[in-house]
């Protein structure tokens, strides 16, 4: 693959260049208006993205979408048609519209590096600025992190189950068309090798792959005609889809048409474990020992693991990847955790937290996160704290600077996020990648500074 | 609400105007290349969108996204940067690139009207044209219909459970930021009244709503300060969020600040059934009999149904709506069901179908769908057929013309889709809206013409 293409900044897609400012819940703007009027809008504020729990049974989470957040914050500018619409609809008043017209985030963002594992309470992202400039980013930041991290968490389980065999993301048809592009990106961060989605290739430089569907075989008068047409067009190293009619006959025809140099065959239905063995034997008998077998039918991490001993050379994963394998979103929230004690410009920050009964309480204060390792270098706790970082955790901090004074400073190639994820996952206890339901693989400990 | 805003064509968003051509699986283009080379690309072809089954336990499906499909097909044009990238990456060869540069869909599309209920085997969309022009729309059409229909199906269950009480869509933060906009649109089709998502208001004219979050209360030095700021900014008819600290105290403060004219209070945590009764009593005791109660904490169709006897005036639904309430995608597929018998320009269509073992077989032939009613006007079967439509079903046909010779003819106001959904659901047997798991509420019968 082309490593240069994976360097930042990402190739800008038509849609990525558009304003992101209205991808926002209305209440962000009405709160802004009320706070501008009360004067509290200027109070320095710290918002934190965290999750109270992992999805049921999951042993770790995966931070993803951080790079997209940076692009989206930069593109958070209100255009004239948007402002006119907000005015027409009386969403906010004139002073607020004037404020929005000049909006540009000027604060600071720190966060877990993209690809980093996270746990309940991990301060995955910390946004600091005036209340006004920080509050209106809530919806957009959560949309991105909640979706991308859900996909990455599923992808990570699949890539752990697949071991060294390559995984191809091919779920575009089972997800919203724009979400699919982000899903391909998140899957790459968590270990997938390629995607079927061309926009993900165009926009993020991901390797793309794909050859043909059943329709191509059915279009032709015979399977032989179809295979011949494909090999003439794409060469003998192509992948032929062999389950339109009869599998054994298709394998025979495929090798007759392409010769034993045929790149791969793809099986998209049936009992994949049994069929993979049967097709492998047949290919070997025909002298096509190097022809690979790709399987692509409703796979998830469990099916991938179950095929571990089958003679399969690669997996294509669709539905279960783009829907987070049963967990299509995360429960990340964006909470005010500290704010200036008064409207005075130099007022100190004070921690704040929702205190009502129920499960939605939160811990106040600006937080850092660190992963403590044991003597063997294996993670044994997620340590989350306010105040100074203990000396023994100084080099185990997980937040990195992403935006400083409104300028993006944390952009990185997608390959760096992918490498970070592999390193982060490898440092977890072995049981992290067990597929059975379990608790978070390390506990979260709180340190108050 | 502003009905004019819901008229077609939808206000074009920045992102909607962009080319949709690369929101496509790579294999669509490689199949195209091979078919152009073999000559089969010119064969007249009929592709059908259908689903083999409903999500587990669901009693009906809801067609949604049709209007978005029409926009997306119109925007399916390859730009020069896209073509250059396809060339650089050697995705397809030069003759294929030249063909793509001139691409514009020139065929016909018929389909179920947006909002119409569907069942296993319903021919939800039928795309007819040359193989080349029709095959490359597969991924994009499925992305849209699978996502939007999944959201609409969940929304329909929720709106049936809510009865006449209004539902607000507020799931943007739990979905990909662009998917969220489409989710708001699909929810509206299936009975929701409004959305928190400003882009959905801007782009599709949906009513938007929202006032404040816990952060707004925490920002101020006291709850009273926050309520006062909000009422000063938004007036007494606003909705105050009352569960940041102590609910009873918040209700007292709210009425002291806003008076009994207060529009509504919102409860976002805790035992909503119990709290709604308690808050209602307190409001009534304070003379605020007309102050409404909105609840918004992790609601789904079951929770909504359970609150049916509670003194609740409206529901806000987030996560479960945008994730399809456990079914975040549909299993719609896009299958070649008929194609010209040869490369001759006037060759007749012949049905085709995948025949291998396993669950993925399909029925060949260009199909129509009709809903048969019993003597009481209640649906008793989904009738799917090839050939002529039986006279008794002539006025019960479900497909309408959407595109003719490449021109969109089926655009309609979103309100029309919403009305169609209500009519369609009302015609189903009563058990359709039972929330318990069940079989499709009517059987699908096949008629071969």
Automatic annotation (TrEMBL), chains A, B:
<keyword id="KW-0436">Ligase</keyword>
<dbReference type="InterPro" id="IPR013785">
    <property type="entry name" value="Aldolase_TIM"/>
</dbReference>
<keyword id="KW-0808">Transferase</keyword>
<dbReference type="InterPro" id="IPR006405">
    <property type="entry name" value="Nic_PRibTrfase_pncB"/>
</dbReference>
<keyword id="KW-0328">Glycosyltransferase</keyword>
<dbReference type="Pfam" id="PF17767">
    <property type="entry name" value="NAPRTase_N"/>
</dbReference>
<comment type="pathway">
    <text>Cofactor biosynthesis; NAD(+) biosynthesis; nicotinate D-ribonucleotide from nicotinate: step 1/1.</text>
</comment>
<comment type="similarity">
    <text>Belongs to the NAPRTase family.</text>
</comment>
<protein>
    <recommendedName>
        <fullName>Nicotinate phosphoribosyltransferase</fullName>
        <ecNumber>6.3.4.21</ecNumber>
    </recommendedName>
</protein>
<dbReference type="InterPro" id="IPR040727">
    <property type="entry name" value="NAPRTase_N"/>
</dbReference>
<dbReference type="GO" id="GO:0016757">
    <property type="term" value="F:glycosyltransferase activity"/>
</dbReference>
<keyword id="KW-0597">Phosphoprotein</keyword>
<dbReference type="GO" id="GO:0004516">
    <property type="term" value="F:nicotinate phosphoribosyltransferase activity"/>
</dbReference>
<comment type="function">
    <text>Catalyzes the first step in the biosynthesis of NAD from nicotinic acid, the ATP-dependent synthesis of beta-nicotinate D-ribonucleotide from nicotinate and 5-phospho-D-ribose 1-phosphate.</text>
</comment>
<dbReference type="InterPro" id="IPR007229">
    <property type="entry name" value="Nic_PRibTrfase-Fam"/>
</dbReference>
<feature type="domain" description="Nicotinate phosphoribosyltransferase N-terminal">
    <location>
        <begin position="22"/>
        <end position="146"/>
    </location>
</feature>
<dbReference type="InterPro" id="IPR036068">
    <property type="entry name" value="Nicotinate_pribotase-like_C"/>
</dbReference>
<keyword id="KW-0662">Pyridine nucleotide biosynthesis</keyword>
